[in-house]
């Protein structure tokens, strides 16, 4: 894992992987498409991720650029020509500036820290976008499953409309019962419009993340995955503090600020220069000259002091930001676990008790209505209860998956799924 890469060779290997990933062409999406296929497409085609990779390549080239000497200066001069032209002195000279010892390495270290940040920003962006794809995918799952529940509800109400019309024709049901069933059927149709809109919005958001036209058709495998075995909270918090991309970026910011502080302390150091020249003296004696010079850091002292003060303040701010991000990470892990546990209890309660009981109640109510033992409104109430419990069950299934996506984003890695028999 990148969290464990510490050597420079390892870092460049990761960057090479980014370059390969950028140049690779994504395979066409299968139909129907799974969540894993969507994530694979995202990694290859998302424009924001491509931008981050390009920025990482740009930042990786800067350390070498800023650590080079300035170009030498070559000059050809006609020097101190005697008025009588007894001699013709021509001077060829070469001058090279030499930064104070440690200044170029300090510039290189600062640029390397910026390259580290740009590289880790690729990981942060990828993890964030993957979490967003998961959330949108499960929004789509919820919309599709809610439409399935809506279809079942509509079929049930259509059967009830037919039964009520037959009872009305036989004089066993009032006209109000027919109107009520038709009103309920229209309400279900109206709800379907909202569900279809939510499904289409999820498709649009997903296409945007995958760099596809907004109206591109997608046939998605609507599942919520297999269960996840969660480590205890302390293990998850340690993993988050060690591997979360946002925290790695916060650490990178501290390293950048430290490098800039070191550079600010060195930038006002004197600049040296050495030069040498050879004079060709036509009709005279050739001569040569050599010298060394240095700047006097008199007027730059205030600038250096201001830059150093700013760098020190930035370093303090970055350390405070890291402490805040660490606390936020711990809170997000704890919150995600609480939400997952609550969703898991709701899922179990609906699957084991509420839905079976509601289904049994509806069956009993329909049988009693056929035998004229209860009124029509009791059947409608039982049908609504079945629908509501099924919809709530689907919502909690999706809620669990979305909170799992939040947890995986917080800890910086995906959690393994259980293998179902």
What is the highest CATH level, the class?
Mainly Alpha
What integer value in Å does the Rg equal? 36 Å
Determine the CATH superfamily: Outer membrane efflux proteins (OEP)
Fraction of residues in β-strands: 5-15%
The biggest beta sheet reads: 4 strands, antiparallel
What is the approximate shape? elongated
Q: Mean pLDDT, nearest integer?
A: 84
Number of helices: 9
Number of strands: 4
Structure description:
There is one protein chain. By secondary structure, this protein is an alpha+beta fold. The protein is built from nine helices and four strands. It is elongated and about 135 Å long. 69% of the residues lie in helices and 9% in strands. The protein has one domain (2-411): Outer membrane efflux proteins (OEP), CATH 1.20.1600. It starts with 7 loop residues before the first helix and ends in a 10-residue tail after the last helix.
């Amino acid at each position: 894992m990148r969290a464990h890469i510490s050597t420079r060779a390892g870092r460049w290997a990761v960057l090479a992987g980014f370059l390969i990933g950028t140049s690779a062409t994504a395979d066409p999406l299968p139909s129907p498409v799974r969540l894993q296929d969507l994530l694979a497409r995202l990694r290859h085609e998302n424009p924001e991720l491509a931008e981050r990779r390009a920025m990482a390549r740009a930042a990786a080239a800067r350390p070498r650029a800023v650590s080079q000497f300035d170009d030498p200066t070559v000059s050809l001069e006609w020097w101190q020509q005697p008025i009588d032209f007894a001699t013709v002195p021509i001077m060829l000279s070469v001058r090279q500036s030499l930064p104070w010892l440690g200044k170029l390495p300090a510039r290189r270290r600062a640029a390397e820290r910026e390259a580290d940040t740009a590289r880790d920003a690729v990981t942060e962006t990828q993890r964030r976008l993957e979490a967003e794809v998961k959330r949108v995918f499960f929004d789509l799952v919820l919309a599709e499953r809610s439409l399935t529940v809506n279809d079942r509800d509509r079929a049930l109400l259509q059967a009830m409309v037919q039964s009520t019309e037959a009872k009305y024709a036989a004089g066993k049901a009032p006209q109000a019962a027919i109107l009520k069933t038709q009103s309920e059927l229209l309400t279900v149709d109206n709800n379907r419009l909202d569900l279809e809109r939510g499904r289409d919005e999820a498709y649009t958001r997903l296409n945007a993340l995958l760099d596809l036209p907004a109206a591109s058709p997608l046939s998605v495998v609507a599942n919520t995955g297999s269960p996840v075995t969660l480590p205890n909270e302390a293990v998850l918090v340690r993993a988050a503090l060690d591997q979360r991309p946002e925290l790695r970026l916060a650490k990178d910011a501290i390293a950048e600020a430290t490098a800039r502080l070191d550079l600010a302390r060195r930038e006002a150091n004197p600049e040296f220069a050495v030069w040498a020249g050879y004079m060709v003296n036509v009709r005279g004696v050739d001569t040569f000259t050599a010298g060394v010079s240095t700047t006097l850091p008199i007027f730059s002292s205030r600038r250096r002091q201001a830059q150093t003060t700013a760098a020190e303040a930035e370093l303090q701010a970055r350390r405070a930001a890291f402490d805040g991000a660490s606390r936020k990470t711990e809170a997000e892990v704890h919150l995600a676990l609480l939400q997952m546990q609550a969703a898991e209890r709701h899922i179990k309660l609906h699957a084991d008790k509420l839905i079976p009981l509601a289904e049994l109640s509806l069956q009993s109510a329909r049988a009693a209505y056929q035998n004229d033992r209860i009124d029509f409104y009791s059947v409608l109430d039982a049908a609504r209860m079945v629908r509501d419990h099924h919809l709530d069950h689907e919502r909690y299934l999706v809620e669990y998956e979305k909170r799992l996506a939040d947890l995986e984003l917080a800890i910086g890695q995906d959690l393994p799924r259980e293998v179902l028999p």
